[in-house]
Each structure stands twice: as structure tokens, then as C-alpha cells.
UniProtKB/TrEMBL annotation:
Domain Cation efflux protein cytoplasmic, residue spans: 229-305
Ranges annotated as spanning the membrane: 27-53, 59-78, 90-111, 131-152, 199-218
Organism whose genome encodes this protein: Bianquea renquensis
Main localisation: membrane
Upper classification of the organism: Bacteria, Bacillati, Bacillota, Clostridia, Eubacteriales
Name used for this protein in its record: Cation transporter
Length: 392
């Protein structure tokens, strides 16, 4: 069904283009606007007729969802703007900003729900809540519509290769199923109890809305601050680089996300020091082009020459790696060089460490230096401690 909807609005030639992401996002947005507007009208009528604050609160929750969908539409439209002088990396992060606005709207409505629910608890309506079969049918239909919207948004997100905005919208739709179910329960049970059950259940709905708002806020702020790339993306980048026999190692990979359609990366590629520099440069250029064509990523590769055919250097490299692994097997070494002397042997290298390390950089450095000097008192380690930018 989702693919059929997509095929109606997107031509086959556009399915895997950057435009398809925007069109799927807009399609999802307008469907959400339409359905949430219908749900708001239906629930508001039920809430007014029945006098239920929980149902009325749930109606305004749908109105907020409609506003969120409009913000999402605006976000997808603006994020597709081409790069310019002011924003040379494009406007892709506007999609994340739209998510922040949506979450703030959700939180505002959640606080309003809490206020109205407490008012109902402290000052319960004297007339009570009226229940009827048509009202029951409207709320049951609303639950079905929200389940459908959750399925639809999740499917649209997968169709565009992943979207935090649509994933959040899908989750919000499923959480609305819970809030509407609570409102329905309130409508059915309030006529049998004397205490203001409607107000208490309204508080439950408000808490669900607030929790959802906080979750969306955290999910959308995270990529704005900068998150590590997925393990799959890191694996594919390294595979494409190391597919070239002339490249013997990769390190210092950094991936910058400027929106779902704009990713920049940089890395260091190790090549034998005795390689022809022009040939090595051609290989690096070829690797950059392949990553761009296959992954849609702009990548800059720095060439690092390393000695791999010197027995003495290789022996020292193995000793250094053994000592590093003794400190923590998760640590990795790169950019190893050696200046050999009779009284002093300079071992120059970088060590990449994960964020979950227990020691400080100075402690790590001191521990590795101590282990190396135990192997040979002439060793003079010059160690740079690097932080991983791709997670663990």
C-alpha cells in the first residue's frame, strides 16, 4: 500500500533521487494534516457534547499533531533548498530544526492538559459526563486511524532510507492510540464513579504527551549537536577504501552530517612509503570518486606514507602494539614512525581510544610509556592520544 501511494506521486525515475525524499516527506505531511484535522473535529465534538476534559484534551492533542505535520512539511521544503553563500553545506539540518519546533509544541500542549485536568480534579463538573454509542464509535474509529497513521509514517520513513522526523511522527501516532484509549475509558467509566475520574485520566494523557514531547526533543537535538555515523556506513567507507590493494590501512575517519542528504567525511589512508607518489595520488582520487558515487558522500582522503618493508621498523611496531593492547585491547595504533639510535630509540605513534576509557589521556600515555621502557630502556615514546569520532 505504501509503495502504491509513493508510485502515484513519484515517478520511477525519481525514486532514488534526492527529490524523492522531499516528495515522500511532503506526502506524509499532508496526509497527517488531513487526518489529524478530521480527528480534532470529531473528538472536539465528542468532548463538548459529553463534557469530558480527557476527550477534549485528546482532541487538542490531535490539533497539535496537525501543527506538527505543517512544521514537518515546511521542514522538508526548506531542507531541499540548494546550498548558497550563506550556507555552503545546504539547508538539510532544517529537517531537524522542524523536529525541535514540533517537540516544543507537544510540550506546550502537554502542560495545558495538566492544567485543565487538575482544574477538573479540584472543581469537578456537577452535570457529569454523558456517554452515547455515536461517541464510542467516533473514538474507536480515531484509534484505528492513529494505528494506520503510525504504520504509514513508519513505512514512509523506511522508503526514504530512514527519517528521524517521520519515525518520531510514527511513534507519536502510536502513543496517541494510548491517549485516545484512555479518553475512551474515561468516557465509559465516568458515569459509574462519583470521583472525577475524567480529570485523573486527563493527567495520564498529559504525562504521555509530555514524555513524547521530551523524547522527540532529544531525538531531534541529538543530530544537531552531532552524532556518530552508523556502523554500517563506517564499514562501507572502509571497505571501499581498502578494496584498493595499494591502500594498507585507514584511520582518523570523521563523518559530518549536514542533513539526511548532505554528508561530508575525511580520513587518512595508509600507503607504502616507497610507492610512486603520483600513482598513489591517483588511487586516492579513485577511492574518493567511488565513495561519492556509491554512498553519495563527499569525502576527502589524506595520504599517509608508512614503512612496511623494514624488518626493524616492523619489529618495533609489533612491540608498541603489544604494549598498547596490554593497557586496553580496544586501543588502536596508527602513524607509527621510528628514529633509531644507539642510546635512544624514538617511537612516534598515535593511539586511538574509545570514549568509555577509565583513565585520562595522560594516564594512558604514562602507562604505555612504562610498558615500553620495561621492554627496552632505550625506548623514548612520543605518543599522541586521539579520540574516536565514529563511536565504538
Amino acid at each position: 500500500m505504501i509503495q502504491k501511494l509513493i508510485s502515484i506521486f513519484i515517478r520511477d525515475t525519481e525514486l532514488h533521487s534526492k527529490k524523492s525524499r522531499q516528495k515522500i516527506g511532503l506526502l506524509s505531511g499532508w496526509i497527517n494534516v488531513s487526518l489529524n484535522l478530521l480527528l480534532f473535529i470529531g473528538k472536539l465534538l465528542v468532548g463538548i457534547i459529553s463534557g469530558s476534559v480527557a476527550v477534549t484534551a485528546d482532541a487538542f492533542n490531535n490539533l497539535t499533531d496537525m501543527g506538527s505535520a505543517l512544521v514537518t512539511i515546511l521542514g522538508f521544503k526548506l531542507s531541499a533548498k540548494p546550498a548558497d553563500k550563506k550556507h555552503p553545506f545546504g539547508y538539510g539540518r532544517i529537517e531537524y530544526i522542524a523536529g525541535v519546533v514540533v517537540s516544543v509544541l507537544i510540550l506546550v500542549v502537554g502542560f495545558e492538559f495538566i492544567k485543565s485536568s487538575f482544574d477538573q480534579i479540584l472543581n469537578p463538573a456537577e452535570s457529569g459526563i454523558e456517554f452515547s454509542i455515536p461517541m464510542f464509535i467516533v473514538l474507536v474509529l480515531a484509534i484505528g486511524v492513529k494505528l494506520f497513521m503510525g504504520y504509514l509514517n513508519k513505512g514512509f520513513g523506511k522508503a526514504m532510507g530512514g527519517s528521524e522526523t517521520l519515525d518520531a511522527t510514527a511513534f507519536d501516532s502510536i502513543s496517541d492510540v494510548a491517549t485516545t484509549s484512555v479518553a475512551l475509558l474515561s468516557l465509559m467509566l465516568s458515569q459509574f464513579v462519583s470521583f472525577p475520574l475524567d480529570g485523573y485520566l486527563g493527567v495520564v494523557i498529559a504525562v504521555v504527551v509530555l514524555v513524547g514531547g521530551v523524547r522527540v526533543l532529544l531525538d531531534t537535538i541529538s543530530p544537531l549537536l552531532g552524532t556518530p555515523p552508523s556502523e554500517e556506513l563506517v564499514r562501507r567507507i572502509k571497505e571501499l577504501v581498502l578494496d584498493h590493494e595499494e591502500i594498507v590501512g585507514v584511520h582518523d575517519l570523521i563523518v559530518h552530517n549536514y542533513g539526511p542528504n548532505k554528508i561530508l567525511a575525511s580520513l587518512h589512508a595508509e600507503v607504502p612509503a616507497n610507492s610512486n607518489i603520483i600513482f598513489a595520488h591517483e588511487i586516492i582520487d579513485q577511492a574518493e570518486r567511488e565513495i561519492s558515487e556509491k554512498l553519495g558522500i563527499t569525502v576527502l582522503i589524506h595520504l599517509d606514507p608508512i614503512v612496511i618493508d623494514d624488518k626493524r621498523v616492523n619489529e618495533m611496531r609489533e612491540i608498541a602494539q603489544e604494549c598498547i593492547s596490554q593497557v586496553d585491547p580496544r586501543f588502536t595504533m596508527h602513524d607509527f614512525r621510528m628514529l633509531d639510535g644507539k642510546k635512544q630509540i624514538n617511537l612516534i605513534f598515535d593511539v586511538e581510544v574509545p570514549y568509555e576509557r577509565c583513565q585520562t589521556k595522560a594516564q594512558i600515555r604514562a602507562e604505555i610509556e612504562e610498558l615500553l621502557r620495561q621492554r627496552d630502556a632505550r625506548f623514548h615514546p612520543i605518543i599522541t592520544i586521539d579520540q574516536s569520532y565514529i563511536g565504538d
